[in-house]
């Protein structure tokens, strides 16, 4: 038994022991057993770190005695991709999931070791319950330490499509998001079990929820970015089931991050909050399940694996358990009767926000699982495509972006009509000016959804700018600081508020990018020979010459294109299609390259105003006769001979290239999506960053009011 | 070598998990936990007071509404400070 | 107004909106959906002019001519196959033996793929475990 495998067995033993110890300690009041439970989580993290290090080192050393290394890496795989190849496999990705879970669990239990005395043991048990499930998977069904004897001399390499930096960071980001959502989930369950449904559990886990949301959001955007810049179809989102599976917990998390503030301040929306956080946790497991189950047709659904049934059982347990808990504790989740709020209040907006986000989540859930629903209802599997999703998500998104601008302008509990008018007029006017300007600049009024989205985004950005301006003015009046210093001061003293506002700006920018690129994209598929020109979106794209290269791993055929507008040179684009050899023993030395995997290198000129995108599809059919002839004459060619033959074919392609098909896209403001993501991340970081600890010093003061005043000024 | 490493990991994990059973768990933990909860509630209340002031100064709340809200929040904050003092007073006595 | 009554009104409005959205959703999903079919199902039941989502594995030996592709799709477990003529973007992972999803309409004895509807599933890296 290897060290790594032993660590997995150990982890599978530690998790349930720790869970039982925690519950025993909580039920009997024996604190030492609660501590045993907490330290079990630390021990789990330590043991899994060893297992992770063993597997990672095997990948970096190209140790092909491990099956997973052989099937997902090779000697020729670049170092960076070797390091990340671990989680391109089922087994390695499950180990990563479990390891991240143990790290976040350790962190939250360390931070709450002196607080939440009643909740922490049950939360520990829930977190260790997750670890037990994943531990059982990696021990009994997906062993990352399966050995090969004899060990091969080389591996099969990493799937070519995954050789992109975004794709390597994408899984750790997603899994960090999923695993971080288990933290507020666990504490919500603990709060329900102990009937401690006040805001204490939320305060303790707020940052974990926000971190989960941030990581998951970045993971989703990285996947979209990879799709745009690496795949040859020219899009970034396809409403694919696995894409949707990551978006749903993110939406539930977004709703939770807003409505928990209402519970924190007013003790309201308790039922909403537990349902949202339990839903986000379950949806996170559902997302992990969808990728591995093969139950839905998806570009990502990597065939069927045997893990579908255990996951389904676990999800059923989570759903039934959550429903039972919420129903049995519904009396403890009732809001205090006396605490109402005006329709013109932040509470109202957050409630509307919840409704829209949950509605969006439901639409996506329904569309994603429709094949299974239709099969259950009609006996036929049927699916809905992107137009169906767009029909419902676009209006909901417009509503959301509008409310994201309205929320910051209203006060908690009540805003007077006069106050609301005063706050709204600036951003509303800005939004109107933007919409009118867009129409004047040529945006057709018929594209009303795009105009509404741009108007909503302008409103949201305008409201944040106004809030920042007003905050700076207040600070300057109080402290006589210069505007930049005052800005830093107010953000530092109100991180949650202004961090949230910056996130809103990021979302608005993202929506602008999505709206513009969806509504005003120009796409053309053209067949060109060298010297020919095509026109797309006002740009002239001239096919200059064909290119080719023969590398150690692949043969690439491509093109150089010159892009100009109004006679002025704009950019030179280079696009290639790489052909990797198949492992089919009957394929010839040259033919095997055109029978195997291929990847597209997109030609991309990115810019804030627009992206110009192109992908080439060489006509291999036109070269088939030549390839077949060479394979027939030299069926056993290898090494230098094979390389010579490949070079001959590729040079022939350059000298006499057949017409190639190009997809040409001019897409406005796509980069705003990624820019919005960066701004969103920055805002989230500000909101997460802990404020300086209030000094713990006993203040002597003549009265409570005076003492409160002094403590407030120091806080 | 693998066996030695496995045994090391096993012993380390066992020692870490079992250590609370052999060392004294501080009796003051309970009060520390209550104090931490009150401090968190106090900090949240201070945030609410500052938020309300910022809402007033940025024109979202009328003066009358702000005064009413501020006095309610300050009363709640003073109650929290009192409870915090009581817990800390018990702590000092226990020490 | 009594807070309890306010709450009930809000709940009523929200539930009504939710029911309306759900009804619209359900109706349009059933009417706008494409039926999924395997090759053998398609051969038995496909009607001319109606679109279907064909799922199956690519039979090796397909031909590419420019941006058009003639390929056969067979049932996952082998057996029947159908000929598809497709025009549009050919996904990078497309090759013989891979699982594909493509929207098709019947045209005589063959099926015509809807432009740019061809999806190739990523090659399986999450396949069934070979044992522990």
CATH class of the largest domain in chain C: Mainly Beta
Give the C-alpha Rg of chain C: 22 Å
Order of helices and strands of chain B: HHH
| N-end to C-end Cα span of chain B | 50 Å
Query: Which superfamily, in CATH terms, is the homologous superfamily of the largest domain in chain C?
Result: Nucleic acid-binding proteins
What is the string of helix and strand elements of chain C?
HEHEEEEEEE
Strand content of chain B: under 5%
CATH-derived architecture of the largest domain in chain C: Beta Barrel
Secondary-structure-based class of chain C equals alpha+beta
Radius of gyration of chain B: 24 Å
Name the largest protein-protein interface in this structure: A-C, 78 and 55 residues
Approximate shape of chain C: elongated
- Give helix % range of chain B: over 70%
Q: Mean of the pLDDT scores of chain C? A: 82
The number of distinct helices of chain B, counting runs of at least 4 residues, comes to: 3
Q: Low-confidence runs of chain B (pLDDT<50, min 5 residues)?
A: none
Q: Span between N and C termini of chain C?
A: 66 Å
Number of helices of chain C: 2
Question: What report would you give on this structure?
Answer:
With 715 residues, chain A is of the alpha+beta class. In chain A, the strands form 2 sheets. Chain A has a 5-stranded antiparallel sheet with strand order 3-4-5-6-7. Chain A has 4 domains: 1-159, no CATH class; 164-333, Four Helix Bundle (Hemerythrin (Met), subunit A) (Up-down Bundle), CATH 1.20.120; 404-520 and 674-714, no CATH class; 530-658, no CATH class. Chain A has helices at residues 3-28, 31-60, 67-72, 79-85, 90-111, 120-140, 165-194, 200-230, 241-266, 270-293, 308-328, 346-378, 386-406, 417-440, 448-479, 483-493, 495-519, 624-633, 639-655, 671-688, 704-714; strands at residues 382-383, 522-528, 533-536, 539-550, 555-565, 568-579, 598-601, 603-605, 610-617, 660-668. Chain B is mostly helical. Helices cover 86% and strands 0% of the residues of chain B. In chain B, α2 (29-57) packs antiparallel against α3 (63-94). Chain C is of the alpha+beta class. Chain C is 28% helix and 33% strand. Chain C has a 5-stranded mixed β-barrel. Chain C starts with a helix and ends in a 12-residue tail after the last strand. At the A-C interface, α3, α5, α12, β1 and α13 of A face α1, β1, β3 and β8 of C. β1 (382-383) of chain A pairs antiparallel with β1 of chain C.
């Amino acid at each position: 038994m290897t060290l790594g495998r032993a660590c997995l067995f150990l982890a599978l033993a530690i998790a349930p022991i720790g869970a039982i110890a925690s519950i025993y300690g909580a039920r009997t009041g024996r604190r030492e057993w609660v501590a045993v439970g907490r330290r079990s989580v630390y021990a789990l993290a330590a043991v899994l770190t060893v297992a992770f290090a063993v597997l990672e080192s095997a990948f970096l050393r190209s140790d092909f005695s491990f099956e997973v290394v052989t099937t997902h890496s090779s000697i020729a795989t670049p170092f960076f991709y070797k390091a990340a190849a671990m989680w391109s496999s089922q087994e390695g990705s499950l180990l990563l999931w479990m390891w991240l879970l143990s790290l976040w669990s350790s962190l939250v239990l360390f931070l709450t070791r002196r607080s939440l005395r009643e909740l922490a043991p049950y939360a520990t048990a829930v977190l260790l319950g997750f670890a037990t499930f994943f531990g059982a998977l990696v021990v009994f069904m997906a062993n990352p330490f399966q050995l090969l004897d004899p060990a091969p001399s080389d591996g099969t390499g990493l799937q070519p499509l995954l050789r992109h930096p975004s794709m390597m960071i994408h899984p750790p980001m997603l899994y960090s998001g999923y695993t971080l959502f288990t933290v507020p989930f666990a504490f919500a369950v603990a709060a329900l079990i102990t009937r401690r449904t006040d805001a204490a559990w939320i305060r303790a886990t707020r940052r974990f929820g926000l971190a989960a949301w941030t990581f998951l959001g970045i993971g989703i955007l990285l996947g979209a970015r990879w799709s745009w810049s690496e795949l040859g179809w020219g899009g970034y989102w396809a409403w694919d089931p696995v894409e949707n599976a990551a978006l749903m917990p993110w939406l539930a998390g977004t709703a939770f991050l807003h409505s928990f503030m209402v519970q924190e301040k007013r003790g309201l929306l308790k039922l909403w909050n537990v349902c949202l956080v339990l839903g986000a946790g379950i949806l996170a497991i559902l997302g992990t399940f969808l990728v591995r189950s093969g139950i839905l047709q998806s570009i990502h659904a990597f065939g069927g694996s045997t893990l579908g049934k255990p996951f389904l059982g676990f999800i059923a347990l989570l759903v039934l358990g959550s429903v039972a808990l919420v129903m049995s504790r519904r009396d403890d989740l009732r809001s205090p009767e006396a605490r109402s709020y005006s329709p013109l209040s932040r509470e109202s907006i957050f409630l509307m926000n919840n409704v829209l986000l949950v509605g969006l989540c439901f639409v996506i859930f329904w569309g994603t699982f429709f094949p299974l629903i239709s099969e259950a209802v009609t006996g036929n599997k049927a699916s809905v495509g992107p137009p169906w999703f767009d029909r419902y998500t676009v209006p909901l998104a417009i509503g959301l972006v509008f409310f994201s601008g309205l929320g910051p302008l209203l006060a908690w509990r009540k805003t007077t009509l006069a106050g609301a008018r005063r706050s709204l007029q600036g951003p509303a006017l800005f939004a109107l000016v933007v919409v009118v300007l867009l129409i004047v600049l040529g945006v057709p009024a018929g594209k009303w959804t795009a105009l509404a989205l741009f108007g909503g985004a302008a409103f949201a950005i305008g409201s944040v700018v106004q809030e920042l301006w007003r905050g700076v003015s207040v600070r300057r009046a109080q402290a006589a600081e210069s505007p930049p210093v005052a800005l830093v001061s107010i953000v530092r003293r109100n991180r949650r508020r202004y961090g949230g506002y910056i996130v809103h700006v990021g979302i608005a920018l993202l929506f602008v990018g999505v709206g513009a690129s969806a509504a005003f994209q120009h796409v053309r598929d053209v067949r060109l020979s060298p010297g020919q020109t095509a026109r797309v979106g006002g740009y002239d794209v001239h096919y200059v010459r064909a290119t080719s290269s023969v590398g150690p791993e692949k043969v690439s055929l491509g093109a150089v294109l010159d892009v100009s507008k109004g006679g002025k040179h704009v950019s030179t684009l280079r696009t290639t299609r790489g052909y990797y050899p198949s492992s089919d023993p009957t394929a010839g030395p040259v033919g095997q390259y055109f029978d195997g995997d291929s990847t597209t290198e997109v030609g991309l000129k990115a810019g804030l105003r627009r992206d110009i995108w192109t992908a080439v599809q060489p006509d291999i059919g036109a070269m088939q006769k030549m390839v077949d002839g060479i394979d027939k004459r030299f069926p056993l060619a290898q090494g230098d001979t094979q390389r010579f033959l490949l070079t001959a074919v590729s040079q022939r392609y350059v000298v006499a290239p057949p017409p190639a098909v190009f997809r040409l896209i001019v897409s406005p403001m796509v980069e705003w999506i990624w820019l919005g993501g960066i701004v969103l991340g920055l805002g989230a970081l500000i909101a997460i960053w802990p404020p300086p600890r209030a000094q713990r010093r006993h203040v002597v003061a003549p009265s409570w009011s005076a003492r409160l005043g002094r403590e407030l000024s120091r806080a | 070598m693998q066996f030695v490493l496995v045994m090391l990991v096993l012993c380390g994990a066992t020692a870490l998990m079992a250590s609370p059973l052999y060392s004294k768990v501080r009796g003051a933990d309970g009060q520390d936990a209550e104090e931490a909860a009150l401090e968190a509630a106090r900090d949240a209340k201070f945030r609410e007071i500052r938020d309300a002031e910022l809402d007033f100064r940025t024109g979202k709340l009328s003066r009358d509404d702000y005064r009413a809200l501020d006095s309610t929040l300050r009363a709640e904050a003073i109650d929290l400070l009192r409870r915090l003092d009581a817990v800390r007073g018990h702590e000092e006595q226990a020490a | 107004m009594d807070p309890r009554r306010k709450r009930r009104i809000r709940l009523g409005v929200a539930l009504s909106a939710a029911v309306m959205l759900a009804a619209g959703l359900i109706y349009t999903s059933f009417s706008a959906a494409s039926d999924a079919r395997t090759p053998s199902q398609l051969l038995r039941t496909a009607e001319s002019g109606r679109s279907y989502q064909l799922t199956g594995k690519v039979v090796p030996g397909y031909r590419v001519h420019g941006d058009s592709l003639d390929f056969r799709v067979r049932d996952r477990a082998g057996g029947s196959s159908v000929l598809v003529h497709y025009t549009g973007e050919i996904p990078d992972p497309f090759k013989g033996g891979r699982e594909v999803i493509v929207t098709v309409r019947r045209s005589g004895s063959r099926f015509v793929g809807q432009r740019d509807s061809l999806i190739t599933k990523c090659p399986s890296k999450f396949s069934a475990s070979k044992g522990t």
